[in-house]
Amino acid sequence: MQNNNQKFQEFIQHYMHVQDVLIIAGGPSQLSFDLTTIHPSKKLLIICCNQSFLQLPQAQIAHHSDYAWWLQYQATLKASFQGDIISGCGLGHNRPYPEHEVLSLKTVRIDTQAELFHSLHYVYGNNCGLQAFSLAHLFQPQRIWLMGYDFQAQQGQTHAYQHQQPQELAHFEKFWGLFLKDFQHFEHLRQRVWHSVHPKHQLPQVFNLNPDSALKLYPSPLELPHWLSLHAT
């Protein structure tokens, strides 16, 4: 039986230099839209973060960062996810993932920064959305589109797909602030490292489909409804 590493190597080659990568995070800005009109293709690679695989089970990749999250959703992933790769970094636990079920990835640290964009086993970040963003670079795409990267509540609703009490929102806001700083660090890192790893290929362009997002690093030339209309099939 083909192991996950071999499968991922072949998967990378199949989508190498893909035109667009769409990453679906769990922010409330996208929860009211019908995403079933989007279909993955050789030109469109879709990565789902955490529970967003429930909205688009045919996406090619479902990514998570926390081992505890995987334990909670393991059965649902197996029953519902129709894509090719389930990847995770296993944060919060030292237990290994079951063989052939999850592609186990490592997070880049100071002593392993040389592996970023070079090794297929390393991604950057302390949260699922940033790890998925880092993962997208392994395909050397032309463009990366961020959906649901809000980092703020909308009418009391958060990335956790539920309404939160004010004290719980304050807790999330602290984490969002840390995550946004980590995005800034990654942006500096990718600007510095990319061309040393891929001197013949341009750094992927990045766009945020939510102009009201707290993540202001990337432009929003298209809002989500317009993007969906252009990619509906």
Short description:
By secondary structure, the protein is an alpha/beta fold.
What topology, given as strand order, has the largest sheet? 5-4-3-2-1-8-9
The arrangement of helices and strands along the chain is: HEEEHEEEEHEHEH
- Structure classification: alpha/beta
Work out the helicity level.
25-40%
What does this structure look like?
The chain is α/β, with parallel strands linked by helices and 233 residues long. The chain is built from 5 helices and 9 strands. The strands form 2 sheets. It has a 7-stranded parallel beta sheet, sandwiched between helices. Strands 6-7 form a two-stranded parallel sheet.
Write the layout of secondary structure elements.
Elements: H1 4-15, E1 20-24, E2 44-49, E3 61-66, H2 67-80, E4 85-91, E5 103-104, E6 106-107, E7 122-123, H3 128-136, E8 143-147, H4 166-197, E9 205-208, H5 224-231
Parallel strand pairs: 1-2, 1-8, 2-3, 3-4, 4-5, 6-7, 8-9
